[in-house]
Write a structure and sequence with these properties.
Strand content: 5-15%
Largest sheet: 5 strands, parallel
Radius of gyration: 25 Å
Structural class: alpha/beta
Order of helices and strands: EHHEHEHEHEHHHHHHHHHHHHHHH
Strand order of the largest sheet: 2-1-3-4-5
Helix content: 55-70%
Number of helices: 20
Shape: elongated
């Protein structure tokens, strides 16, 4: 039997749901019921739970905040949300966080409840089977981290909400290097996975299925895979219209148009539907670079990539392929950015 926790500030609603559902038939045992998200977090400290049935609008700690906090703490369980009709906007937000389903408080029917909770039990069973096949001895393989290693994981954790690793390849590589230097415990990797998905869902209004990425947890470079998936979703229009999305669209546009010598902030701002000044301010805020500096950085990165692919390529050919018609100007920009001349870089 799987353990279920009922979280609702209405005691009568909690007791009604407990009596309405044939829990054993659905594969569950009610582990407990509490009045808000804060009490639920306390309950979870001492009671293992597989599924939480959560009211969305509660005092102290709402259902949405409770789910987000559980994800941030690395608590692995599934969620079904309870809502009234007027709470549908909250339901939509909850679904974007990856909850299994929702129940309307105004239309609770025994047959519908049985169907929903049986599906939940099947989902939990599938997840447990997948996790055991990927890492059957994960709990035994966990290691005790030193204070320095804990600090290292904390630094990585704090880099995620900044989103620099989304916009800048250098920041992504730095994040991956920091992670590779630390012991790769299943618990810390899973917590980081949830933290990343939660951050991206909030910033880009994009929905990820965290279970889809669990298969990558044994890979050394699974963070770039999530970044690539975000880029794919932005290109496909599967995101909201937040500022983060607009800036990432601009970054993608720049990366795809580096050979265009006329690539300028004005044209990029027009493409993403913003004024030049407002776009420039927000681009610098989110990426850490001015638009022109970012374009220059990306062009130099492309030039270095072309050198690695073909060390016989001429400076004239490279300068043309990265959007500079004047090779002397390109050589000057290369020296300013890399600290060595183009010829010296090729020799090295």
């Amino acid at each position: 039997m799987y353990q279920v926790l009922i979280v609702d500030d209405d005691k009568l609603a909690r007791k009604g749901l407990i009596s309405l559902v044939p829990w054993e038939q659905c594969g569950f045992t009610v582990a407990g019921d509490v009045a808000n998200g804060s009490l639920a977090l306390q309950f979870l400290e001492t009671h293992p739970v597989d599924l939480a049935v959560v009211d969305l609008t509660m005092p102290v700690l709402s259902g949405l905040d409770f789910i987000c906090e559980c994800r941030a703490r690395g608590i692995s369980m599934e969620y079904i949300v309870l809502s009234a009709h007027e709470d549908f906007s909250y339901v939509q937000k909850a679904l974007r966080l990856g909850v299994l389903d929702y129940l309307s408080k105004m239309q609770l029917e025994p047959d519908e409840c049985v169907e929903i909770f049986q599906r939940a039990a099947e989902k939990i069973q599938k997840k447990k089977s997948e996790l055991s096949s990927v890492s059957p001895d994960a709990s035994k393989s966990e290691v005790i981290l030193t204070p320095e290693e804990k600090e290292g994981w904390k630094e990585i954790w704090e880099m995620i909400p900044d989103l620099g690793w989304v916009y800048n390849m250098e920041q992504l590589e730095l994040l991956c290097r920091k992670k590779q230097k630390l012991p790769q415990t299943h618990k810390n990797n899973y917590r980081l996975l949830v933290h990343i998905l939660q951050t991206l869902q909030r910033a880009f209004e994009v929905r990820f299925d965290e279970h889809f990425f669990e298969t990558y947890l044994e890979e050394n470079e699974w963070i770039p895979l999530i970044r690539d998936e975000l880029y794919r979703k932005v290109k496909a229009g599967d995101c909201g219209q937040t500022m983060e999305v607009l800036i990432l669209k601009a970054v993608i546009l720049i990366s795809q148009d580096l050979t265009n010598s006329q690539l300028k902030a004005e044209t990029i701002a027009d493409t993403v539907g913003m004024s030049r000044s407002y776009f420039s301010i927000n681009f610098k805020k989110h990426t850490g670079y001015s638009v022109n500096s970012f374009i220059r950085k990306e062009r130099i990165a492309l030039a270095k990539q072309l050198i690695h692919e073909n060390d016989r390529i001429s400076i004239g050919e490279i300068s043309e392929r990265v959007g500079y018609h004047d090779e002397k100007y390109f050589a000057k920009i290369f020296l300013q950015n890399e600290g060595i001349t183009f010829s010296e870089y090729k020799k090295h």
